[in-house]
Amino acid sequence: MGSWNFSVFWDEVMNQTRSELGDHEFAMWFNIQYDSSSESAITIRVPSSFYKDQLVKQYQGFLESKLFDLAGRRIAIEFIVVKPTQSADPAFSPQGGDGQRSPEPRPKIEVNVPAAKVKEKHSQLRSDYTFENFVIGDNNGFASNAALAISKNPGTSYNPFLIYGGVGLGKTHLMQSIGNRVWRDSPKLKVICITAEEFTNEFIQSIHDKTTQNFKNKYRYVDVLLIDDIHFLQNKLGSQEELFHTFNALYDANKQMVFTCDRPVSELKNLSDRLRSRFERGLNVDLQPPNFETRSAILKKKIEAGRISVPDEVIEIIAKNISTNVRDLEAALTKLIAYAELVHREITLEIAQNQLKDVFSQSKHGNVTIDNILRVVADYFKLSYNDLKGKKRTKNIALPRQIAMFIARDITEYSTTELGFEFGGRDHTTVMHACQKIEERLKLDPNLESTIGAIVRAIKDYSSKA
Ligand code: ADP
Ligand code: MG
After folding, report:
1. Using CA atoms, how far apart are residues 92 and 13, in angstroms rounded to an integer?
2. What is the architecture of the domain spanning 370-465?
3. What is the H or E stretch that residue 223 is in?
4. Of 447 and 247, more confident
5. CATH 3.90.1150.10 given to domain 7-86
6. Which CATH class is domain 292-365?
7. What CATH number belongs to 131-287?
């Protein structure tokens, strides 16, 4: 048993419970007392079996989840019935403690085996961020496989595991999937999942409250520590220092750490070298924007989970038009479904096009670069990239170059001056002239529009895979 003492946590749980339930309900049911702690449980004395049954039924889960939040690990609650020693007394005095009742003999104990088999939700993990809901695609195959391997054997390989990449690409989802899988399959393991910001705030609070030892105990005795968005730690030297020591303790004990970051660790600023080198140990993998197939698969998965059917052609235009990240992709789908539900109509291509017009035009610049445009246009007209960018003015090159400029102006945010520069150091008037030419031609040549349309689609597709 050792020297476990969770009474501080228990007191805090009681404080919170009192303020949440109100004095009346609290007085009715919480005439109970802390007894003792073991490594994984707290024993609480209750005055009768009836009390015990009610507490187990109504409050045990509630209390255990509060304990979890405070202690960062699962601590079960065991209720023991301690009949009041003298018959008159219906219950204990609320905070009385041992002084008010005869301390021995140790009462007859009915241990209530806590409802450990009932799988409760982990309070820090989103229950939908699971591997089951995560589409493994072109952009995340390696990261997903590593994550799966880690959740089978946490702490044994790939430690730490660090996932980096831009916003909305699935870093948090993948990290929490590890947590959820471990939580489900290895109930004995203690999993903590927080953001770097929460870590920082809690650390500062613990300094303020003079409870840094509790803080250290909480984070240095976990089996799986998941910390989201570590870029937040830039400039936070105190928290970096604390995390450095936490890292070392966990690393030496072969406990699994998983971090996410919005950029490669090498690009973080104002991060101590020693913490940087710790992050870079183990395995660092990046997530990329998904390609068209993966985007379609993700949309299908989300649709499956809901109750509204969405035609394939609609999935296709969403996946085609939104290539930036998964969050935007989901947002578009959600918007469309919300609209359809509101007006009680089936989702059609037309509705989708109308409703998502703005979303599509916002995201159309996605990852499109001038370089990508040049490559795709060159490819389309069977020219070389260098020819298109270069000085030659022969007719077979001049027209494709004008088309490339026209498209670039249309689908990117570049100014004509910037475009001139990107197109081999030309003057902005050249770009303007090219765009005019194409506009004139468009009026005369009915095929040109569809040619340009096809090239634009190819550029977007290419860019989303790049
Ligand atoms: P990040 O942490 O990288 O900003 P998130 O993990 O929050 O991104 O992902 C954004 C949204 O996209 C979430 O709702 C997540 O469920 C979803 N998502 C991202 N990648 C995938 C994927 N491969 N399969 C299914 N959903 C995904
Ligand atoms: Mg995230």
Report:
1. 19
2. Orthogonal Bundle (1.10)
3. none
4. 247
5. no
6. mainly alpha
7. 3.40.50.300
Q: Which ligand is nearest to the CA of 176?
A: 1
The response to whether residue 261 sits with its C-beta less than 6 Å from ligand 1 reads no
Q: What are phi and psi of 370, to 5 degrees?
A: -60, -35
So what's the pLDDT on residue 385?
Answer: 92
pLDDT digits (tens, 9 = 90+) for 78-88: 999 887 654 44
Mutate to test the pocket of ligand 1, among 259, 327, 333, 334 (most ligand atoms within 8 A of CB): 327
Q: Is 163 in the pocket of ligand 1 (CB under 6 A)?
A: no
Is residue 322 in contact with ligand 1, taking CB distance under 6 Å?
Answer: no
CATH 3.40.50.300 in the chain, residues? 131-287
Closest by CA position to 259, among listed 269, 244, 272, 270: 244
Q: Where in the chain is the domain with CATH 1.10.8.60?
A: 292-365
| C-alpha 173 – ligand 1 centre gap (Å) | 5
Nearest CA owner, ligand 1 atom 14: 327
Q: Show the tokens assigned to 348.
A: 């059609």
323, 326, 334: residue to mutate for ligand 1 pocket, most atoms within 8 A of CB: 326
CATH 3.30.300.180 region(s) of the chain? 7-86
| CA 252 – ligand 2 centroid, Å | 27
Band of pLDDT at residue 439, cut at 50, 70 and 90: very high
Would you say the CB of residue 414 lies under 6 angstroms from ligand 1? no
DSSP string of 386-453, one letter each residue: HHHHSS---HHHHHHHHHHHHHHHHHS---HHHHHHHTTS--HHHHHHHHHHHHHHHHH-HHHHHHHH
Atom of ligand 1 nearest to the CA of 128: 16
Contact criterion met (CB below 8 Å) for 349 and 310: no
- The reply to whether the predicted model has a pTM over 0.70 is no
Query: What is the pLDDT averaged over residues 380-408?
Result: 92
Which residue ranges does the chain devote to CATH 1.10.1750.10?
Answer: 370-465
Highest mean pLDDT among 29-38, 79-88, 227-236: 227-236
| pLDDT confidence of residue 336 | 94
Over residues 387-399, the pLDDT tens digits come to: 998 888 898 999 9
